[in-house]
Amino acid sequence: MNRSINSGPDQILPTEEITTTNLDEPVRLRIPESGKAIETVAPISVPGLLKRTSEAYPNHAALAYKAESKWNKISYKEYHDLVRTCARGFIKLGLERHHSVCILGFNSPEWFIADLAAIFAGGVAVGIYTTNSSEACFHCANQSKANIIVVQDQKQLDKILAIKSRLPHLKAIVQYEGEPTSPGVVSWEDLMIIGRDQGDEELDRILKTLAVNECCTLVFTSGTVGKPKAVMLSHDNLTWDAVSISQRLDIKKGEEIIVSYLPLSHVAAQVVDIYLVMLNAACIYFADPNALKGSLINTLQEAQPTKFLGVPRVWEKMHEKMMQIAAQNTGIKKALSSWAKNQALQHHLNRMKGINSNSWGYCLASSVIFKKIKQALGLNRCTTFASAAAPLASDIKKYFLSIDLPIMEAFGMSEASGAHTLCTIDSFGLDTIGTALPGMRTKTVNCEDGQGELCMNGRHVFMGYLNDQEKTQETIDSEGWLHSGDLGRIDDKNFIYITGRLKELIITAGGENVAPVPIEQLVKAELPHVSNAFLVGDTRKFLSVLVTFKTDVEPETGRPLDTLLESVQDWLKGLGCPAKTVSEILAAGPDPKLRKALDEGIDRVNLQAISNAQRIQKWSILPVDFSVATGELGPTMKVKRNIVTTKYADIIEKMYV
């Protein structure tokens, strides 16, 4: 299997090490000596994969983007040529072997091209969250020894200009949207001109030195606890994960997949949107940065995708909008809608139990009602609806089941190249994250009461954390198992369930371990007008919960506003304590009628508690909802528990006086 050091990019460099913390060191591939065909798929590099697809399907559309109200498509041959041109430009601008190109911007063809070009040119691709502050950007760029930083626009550029003098390896900044006005910043057009002016000799020489078992991508964790760690991913980590996902989803050649709104610094988006698509000669339509402000529906209607992946917030926003529309139904229309939803919900609940229940009622509702809903959403051709990056509440999944849109939960982590499990329409449930993808293994360790830490193994397991041997050894054991930090269990059908997070466990004063996330989701399910529920009680005698109400958000920044959503206002009016803002609720005390409604919701949650120690005894309403902009949520919408407990320490203390 070992080859010459200059026969890349698909060569495998000799080594027996299964981890590394250095960018210039390879690792041993975890390919079993025997096993299923999928487990022994020949390793291929990122450049090798794009070259193979562009040669086999040169005229297939690879990328579709909208400009001046018109959709434009880039073929795979054009895609490959653009990547090579950009790579030559990066080399001319000074990109060194094993140094990085950091990319700071939203989804776009330029993002994809820059990402792949960095790898082609012998560097390392690094996505940076668009929500990062200047200091957070500095951490990523400095750690990865960035030679080049690619930014979307002036807003992102300003972050880099503020830290430019502190980045000793930085040689060039490229802006891919708008004309740069700052001295020394290279426009995307000029970068491509530079690339076109260069010959292929140097690029081809560098490509021959690449190997599938060396690092090509760094993914910085969201930093919900401490500073973000740099996850090192090899070519094989990424391309192999794409192979496994592809087999589970049964993706056909030439399918069209919509990019989720997430900036592509998130590894799940990179795997699905770049490598999975590239592997299958599929086409991506780019949703714009305003996807959560209402524009996503336009992209869906125009693209008519066959697969659609959205983060939980995408599905939550769709749910909120559809509930507002449904609330306007009256009389026969309302009764017909309720009947149809019951038919669909029961149909899918039966399917989970292995019961084939294509009743006449479901078939009628599907052809008459749900067909129109799917057409309105642009999802009438879609065969897979998936959610990833964070848990999606069961009540949201149940709602979409009732309108015949079964959402498949996916689970993974940056350290597992993005994906490890996925539900499918033939094998799913409301509470499970599915079964492991083909060629991937799962086990639990240190089990108590039937649950333990979830561990993963396979070719998708990362190489190590850059410059952090201690954390690497904590996360990957001597046998190559990745310790996720998630508590979970595996049932007799190999379905995997996450029951908590080891580092997020609340340990009460009585010594009982409590996983907060399941209880928080129950609160939101029983009190649907609550946006976020945050459980507290570490070292305390009992549990309490902080709640926020659903409010409008500032369109540009995403900051929560004081104004309650119309649906929340209607609920309060129905209780007999009308209010239009959170401030009004808090100024009133809150109203006894609202207190009664919240108490009753918490009581319903407590009825489902498995022990007295897991019952909530007190609650408080927070003055503002959580958001990325205000710091309580990370880029993947996960709660930063340390930030919340510090920010609202006074409110928490009052509940324990």
TrEMBL record:
Provide the top EC class: ligase
Catalytic activity, EC: 6.2.1.3
Protein name per its UniProtKB record? long-chain-fatty-acid--CoA ligase
Q: Name one GO molecular function term.
A: long-chain fatty acid-CoA ligase activity
Task: Show where the AMP-dependent synthetase/ligase domain sits.
Answer: 51-466
Keyword line: Fatty acid metabolism, Ligase, Lipid metabolism
Query: From which source organism is this entry?
Result: Tenebrio molitor (Yellow mealworm beetle)
Per the record, its GO cellular-component terms are:
endoplasmic reticulum; membrane
